[in-house]
């Protein structure tokens, strides 16, 4: 069992290895109820886990819709009502088991119920393991945009069990690799070198290469979050590729996989960095080569840039009406761009238009 520690509003650990309730029991010593939140597609697995845990507390099973559809105000209200029906108190705990959407929602339910209860995150996807489950950013989507409603509320513990990846659909695994590749570009070039050496191995759920890049990506996020919990400066680098990605997701009514949108967003960010003179063509080509090597998308439909710009204008990073982008000069060397011109945005977008 590997442990990565994170400093936030409270310190907590990310445990990487086989899921073992023994690691959780000490935290639950004063708990009388646990609300277990999980998406419907893994209900059979969760039933098996809850039976094996044999916890001496009341388990409140809350099954959620699949994917991004669960991150809605309507689902959140249903969770609140269920907690109320069971007299869920501040000493009780929430556990979220599922992908990034589930851990985002479970964390926000924990942040908002009684102004904050403890929670544990158990991510079951690559994207959840390396990104969504770690760092304390919780939230839901609204029609105006992704994650516009939320709170910083760190879990008390994160379990990362790679065995969950065995049953993960290959397209979901592939999509999660976008967040891993992002970590490589912003903070750990060794991740990129592993992809370049043998990309096929990154699509095998139990390969040593995949487990290594997951571990490295968790460490990248842990380091950044520990230095800047509430995105005042450094943490913003984790949004590399996300400004356009969130706009695409909103435009697609959240039917696109998050990682697929981030993949396109990173290529756009590299093209924009090239256009404004921050980086060279070699860096752009490296983005395309690595992302293409594992089958991630690198383009988006044309004739929608005005709509995307409007959506990007609602991004959480916008300051004073000016779009802000996290860009790269080179691998592991960040630049920020505030107030990009429409001409530069147009030229960069033309490079990724399908």
Molecular structure report:
The chain has two domains: 2-167, Rossmann fold; 170-352, Dehydroquinate synthase-like, alpha domain (Up-down Bundle). Helices cover 43% and strands 19% of the residues. It contains twelve helices and eleven strands. The chain has helices spanning 43-53, 73-85, 100-112, 126-132, 170-187, 189-197, 208-227, 242-251, 258-275, 281-293, 305-312, 342-352; strands at 2-6, 12-16, 33-39, 58-64, 93-98, 118-123, 137-142, 145-152, 157-160, 324-330, 333-338. The strands form three sheets. The chain has a seven-stranded mixed β-sheet with strand order 1-2-9-6-5-3-4, with helices on both faces. A two-stranded antiparallel sheet has the order 7-8. Helix 4 packs parallel to helix 5 (170-187) and helix 4 packs parallel to helix 7 (208-227). The mean pLDDT is 93.
């Amino acid at each position: 069992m590997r442990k990565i520690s994170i400093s936030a509003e409270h310190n907590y650990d990310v445990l990487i290895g086989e899921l073992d309730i023994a690691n959780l029991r000490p935290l639950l010593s004063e708990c009388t109820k646990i609300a277990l939140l999980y998406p419907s597609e893994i209900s059979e697995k969760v039933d098996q886990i809850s039976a094996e845990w044999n916890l001496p507390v009341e388990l409140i099973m809350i099954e959620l819709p699949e994917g991004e559809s669960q991150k809605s105000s309507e689902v959140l209200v249903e969770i609140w009502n269920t907690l109320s029906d069971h007299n869920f108190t501040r000493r009780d705990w929430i556990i979220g088991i599922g992908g990034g959407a589930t851990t985002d929602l479970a964390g926000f339910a924990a942040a908002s119920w009684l102004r904050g209860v403890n929670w544990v995150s158990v991510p079951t996807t690559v994207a959840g393991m390396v990104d969504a489950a770690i760092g304390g950013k919780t939230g839901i989507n609204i029609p105006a945009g992704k994650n516009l409603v939320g709170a910083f509320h760190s879990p008390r513990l994160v379990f990362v069990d790679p065995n969950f990846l065995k049953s993960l659909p290959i397209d979901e695994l592939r999509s999660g690799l976008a967040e891993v590749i992002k970590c490589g570009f912003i903070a750990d070039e060794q991740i990129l070198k592993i992809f370049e050496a043998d990309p096929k191995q990154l699509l095998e759920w139990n390969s040593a290469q995949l487990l290594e890049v997951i571990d490295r990506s968790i460490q990248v996020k842990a380091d950044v979050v520990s230095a800047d919990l509430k995105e005042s400066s450094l943490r913003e680098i984790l949004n590399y590729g996300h400004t356009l990605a969130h706009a695409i997701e909103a435009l697609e009514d959240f039917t696109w996989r998050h990682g697929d949108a981030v993949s396109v967003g990173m290529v756009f960010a590299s093209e924009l960095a090239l256009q404004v003179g921050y980086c060279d063509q070699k860096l752009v080509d490296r983005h395309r080569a690595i992302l293409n090597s594992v089958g991630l998308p690198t383009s988006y439909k044309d004739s929608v840039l005005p709509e995307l710009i409007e959506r990007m204008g609602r991004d959480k990073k916008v300051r004073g009406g000016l779009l802000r982008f996290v860009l790269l000069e080179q691998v592991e060397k960040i630049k920020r761009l505030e107030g990009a011109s429409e001409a530069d945005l147009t030229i960069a977008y033309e490079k990724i238009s399908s």
